[in-house]
Design goal:
Shape: globular
Distance between the termini: 25 Å
Number of helices: 4
Strand content: 15-25%
Oligomer: single chain
Strand order of the largest sheet: 1-2-3-6-7-9-8
Helix content: 25-40%
Number of domains: 1
Number of strands: 9
Radius of gyration: 15 Å
Largest sheet: 7 strands, antiparallel
CATH class: Alpha Beta
CATH architecture: Alpha-Beta Complex
């Protein structure tokens, strides 16, 4: 079984964020950093080379594969700011209708700019997701 390549490491979150070239994306990333730190009560840590994560949980699949992953996190990618909503979006339909302009993947929320997002709704979404992950994985 292949090892998960994206792991928590000791790289500097501040240096990583300072290296984000686009000033607007860098500003949005710092706002999300504050929001997630406040919600989780956890210190940010680098996961791999480009993800800032908060907290962690241990998972084990029926297949026997297991590992550790962040409770929530984000990555200031060139195309969009990617936020990791680990419990996915099922059950959050009401919030999603009020959130603003975004796209989603399985557990990824893609945001071009925080200007287009209702930050109170985002706060509620991240809070609910982190609470679910903590209840489910301890």
């Amino acid at each position: 079984m292949a090892d998960l390549k994206t792991k928590k490491n000791q790289a500097s979150v501040q240096q990583f964020l300072a290296s984000v070239e686009d000033e607007k994306r860098r500003k949005d990333a710092r706002a999300v950093l504050r929001l997630m730190r406040e919600i989780t009560g956890e210190k940010p840590a680098m996961w791999g080379r480009s993800i800032v994560g908060f907290g962690s949980y241990h998972y084990r699949y029926a297949s026997g594969r297991e590992g550790d992953w962040m409770l929530t996190g984000f990555s200031p990618r060139k195309q969009a700011l990617t936020l990791y909503i680990m419990d996915g979006f099922d059950g959050h339909e009401d919030l999603m209708t009020k959130l603003g302009k975004y796209k989603t993947g399985k557990s990824c929320l893609y945001v071009k700019s925080l200007e287009h997002i209702d930050m109170d709704v985002l706060r509620e979404l991240v809070t609910e997701s982190v609470a679910y992950m903590r209840r489910t994985y301890g």
